[in-house]
Amino acid sequence: MRFPSGLSAFPITPADDTGRIDTAALRRLVGRLVAADVDSIGLLGSTGIYMYLTRDERRRAIDAALAESSGRVPVIAGIGALRTDEAVALARDAKDIGAAAGLLSAASYTPLTDDEVFEHFSAVAYGSGLPIVIYDNPGTTHFKFTSELVGRLAGVPGIVAIKNPGVGADETAKHLAGQRGTVPKGFSIGCSADWTAAETMIAGADTWYSVLGGLLPGVCLKIVRAAQQGDAAEAHRLDGMLEPLWELFRQYSSLRVVYALADLLGICRTEPPRPILPLAAPAKRQVADTLARLPVDILA
Amino acid sequence: MRFPSGLSAFPITPADDTGRIDTAALRRLVGRLVAADVDSIGLLGSTGIYMYLTRDERRRAIDAALAESSGRVPVIAGIGALRTDEAVALARDAKDIGAAAGLLSAASYTPLTDDEVFEHFSAVAYGSGLPIVIYDNPGTTHFKFTSELVGRLAGVPGIVAIKNPGVGADETAKHLAGQRGTVPKGFSIGCSADWTAAETMIAGADTWYSVLGGLLPGVCLKIVRAAQQGDAAEAHRLDGMLEPLWELFRQYSSLRVVYALADLLGICRTEPPRPILPLAAPAKRQVADTLARLPVDILA
């Protein structure tokens, strides 16, 4: 079995306006995911505002999540940073505390070359001993991984998986087959961009790294299980019911929408770190209206 | 007189591989700029690796630069950060230490909306009292300032100037005239991307924010003075002599090339922060060959 696989659920990270994490609120979010029996928890992803948190706060987040999950669900922790030495330190922290893997992006300010990203990832893998998930997120990092670079990285000991950005429904099976051809057999290939994930899981991806899964793990798990059992019709049916939410994710970004959803569902009231603003009132009403029209069992 | 104006020279920030600044080396770099009588020093710009330095190290850099310049040349300090509260703190530090202005980018991880950038800049201007230069650098931040947003920001008390990205030679006069129409009369409009700067200064920009000026202030000052005196032919002649360097800047990025130049000229031997790698040997030889063919008086 490749790791990660199945549903990797990405919760938000509740924090105050100075970037101090509310660990009690985070434990409640993690507790819901453990209770739902997700396959892994993706802590400190982009939705988990990892780039806006200090090393100390990231340690506190991993501590709290591991205390809550107490071995029942593996925790994958975001370890991305602009500096290589900082990413190595974050990866060592995550390993010391007990994270199962680290999610490493090509976060950058000065645009990076392929060789620079290769060295960065290798240094973190070798320097920490933590299994590394390549976090390919051009929407935030603006770095584009070529298939050649993914192939090189997948050959580095300790780099075990990739979280791909969204690939259009028509292209996803072809992209997946192409990527399988460039990585070792045990390497896990996963997808993100929730609105493209059902199709990619049906096409045989190992893992859905899911923003909505961090808040509504039930329905996301059902989609994953249907895809894993080859029941494309059921996966499509459930995914179709979520389309109004996907439309909001595309329009306002999944991060901003999921903060509003957490509040509207009474799960967690918190705001993203400034300069990121909460959704303005009209957009939030639109989220509330969408929520009110969703079938009740989706929210269970 | 608008501020900044003329040549704002941007030195590199020598630091070790843990991000600790070599303040003695930085003072030598700043001392050369003061001796050349540049109009301002642009400390901790992108070439000055501001995004890769802690708040403490940025404070040390400003301290060292001000100690060296001792009031003879105003220092503009990079105060960009992903978090608004951090940018406010950096701006207050810069003001407390004695910087003349702060250079504020729309540094981002989660892509920002116009309203978010407006609130971010306003919070830093109001929260610090430091005069703010808008740092528009889509090549690193991937945020695109619209002319409408620049106009709104230029109306915020304390936001005094903009450092524009490179505009092609054919477009620069038109762009400049358009921007003048959206900002108050006292607002300073400047340019960067060294290979486009002579043309933009000839077209009447106030300031050249210059990477090469941080290392070779003499020739850059001559271009600025020629442009200011309406001697387009002389500005073009000098700029043309630098074209082989501009070609390297475009090919390898000005940051990587200027680190190699500093070493080859015997001015400062340091490396950029990982993951950014120094130029590989063949590229560095190309820089050395280019340098060897430049007229000697350019290097004075």
Structure description:
The structure is a homodimer of 300-residue chains. By secondary structure, chain A is of the alpha/beta class. Chain A has an 8-stranded parallel β-barrel, surrounded by 8 helices. The first copy, chain A, has one domain: Aldolase class I (TIM Barrel), CATH 3.20.20.70. Helices cover 48% and strands 12% of the residues of chain A. The model of chain A has no long low-confidence stretch (mean pLDDT 97). The longest helix of chain A is centred in the C-terminal third of the chain and has 21 residues, at 232-252. The two termini of chain A are 29 Å apart.
Which key phrases capture this entry?
300 residues; alpha/beta; 8 strands; homodimer; TIM Barrel; 12 helices
Largest beta sheet: strand ordering of chain A: 1-2-3-4-5-6-7-8
Q: Describe the global form of chain A.
A: globular
CATH topology of chain A: TIM Barrel
Rg from Cα of chain A: 18 Å
Q: Which CATH architecture of chain A would you pick?
A: Alpha-Beta Barrel
Total helical elements of chain A: 12
Number of strands of chain A: 8
Q: DSSP strand (E) fraction of chain A? A: 5-15%
Tell me the number of structural domains of chain A: 1
**Helical content of chain A (DSSP H or I, runs of 4+):** 40-55%
The average pLDDT value of chain A, as a whole number, equals 97
How many angstroms does the end-to-end distance of chain A come to? Answer: 29 Å
- Kindly report the greatest chain-chain contact and the residue count on each side: A-B, 35 and 35 residues
Uncertain runs of chain A are none
CATH superfamily of chain A: Aldolase class I
Main beta sheet of chain A = 8 strands, parallel, barrel
Oligomer kind: homodimer
Determine and state the CATH class of chain A: Alpha Beta
The computed structural class of chain A is: alpha/beta
The SSE order of chain A reads EHEHEHEHEHHEHEHEHHHH
